[in-house]
Amino acid sequence: MSAPHPSDSSAPDAPAAPTRRVRKAVVPAAGLGTRFLPATKATPKEMLPVVDKPAIQYVVEEAAAAGLDDVLMVTGRHKRAIEDHFDHAFELEQALATKGDTVRLDAVRDPARLASIHHIRQGDPLGLGHAVLCARRHVGDEPFAVLLGDDLIDQREALLSRMLDVRDGRGGSVVALMEVPPEQIHLYGCAAVEPTGEEDVVRVTGLVEKPAPHSAPSRYAVIGRYVLDPGVFGVLERIPPGRGGEIQLTDALQELAAGGTVHGVVFEGRRYDTGDKADYLRTVVRLTCERPDLGPEFTAWLREFVAGLDDARPARRDIAA
């Protein structure tokens, strides 16, 4: 299922009036990380390393690369490590400076230099919509981006920048969409869409949170990138809890979509899901293989290791017999 083509019967959207440029990002990071227990008993899941950086640093780097210089972390209890990571570590920095270890010194300083980082606690974990609502005072009446830490977008992709361009041209809110197999759509929010005059942009007419495959309106899943109009706060404030007894961002966007103010950017690039154990491990392997300093040696070892597995399988079958 490909993105609707501009030649479809729906007329292209008229360009919207220029809107205020987005400069703030919100990163919800209050989840308990239960799928990674016991590793996340005392360590935030967002701080689990992906090669040699915590997952959440990749997300903040993506926001900074798209020009968002103000980042609000919505955290919870036992998340102090996130705050510490994006702060200066003066004793460590001094020790590295004394040794003349400029490479590690820059690596330690980089997180604090990416953007102006702020923190607020969500308190009760009442869902993604509630986490976004917690950002209302900081965001004010400006449009803003939301980046979920479980979804890592490859640094070579320009998804967030493209979404910001669509918001600038069309106003309203913009969600990132990716086509997934029918048997996986129940894991995501799912969008009903109509074509626009741009090949990678659709108008979102409805949203359903984690539908059954037979009732899903499409195969377009909402992935963890949003550019939201501040009007979403008023909707989040008054909608009742939805699926799982939580305040769902999907439900608020469904109401906005009914008014014709939500668009989707169809993404076909490289995305890594670190919210699942197996996908997390695959992400680490992929990114390690692509690193010029680690990739050649690691890839050679990996080939040898996999070949060893293949050689061992017949012997294991013989033993079982």
UniProtKB/TrEMBL annotation:
It is an enzyme of class 2 (transferase). This is UTP--glucose-1-phosphate uridylyltransferase. Residues 1-18 have a biased composition (Low complexity). InterPro entries: GalU_uridylyltTrfase_bac/arc, NTP_transferase_dom, Nucleotide-diphossugar_trans. Signal peptide: none annotated. It holds the Pfam family NTP_transferase. It comes from Streptomyces olindensis. GO terms for molecular function: UTP:glucose-1-phosphate uridylyltransferase activity. It catalyses: alpha-D-glucose 1-phosphate + UTP + H(+) = UDP-alpha-D-glucose + diphosphate. Residues 24-283 form the Nucleotidyl transferase domain. Residues 1-21 are annotated as: Disordered. Keywords: Nucleotidyltransferase, Transferase. Its EC number is 2.7.7.9. Belongs to the UDPGP type 2 family.
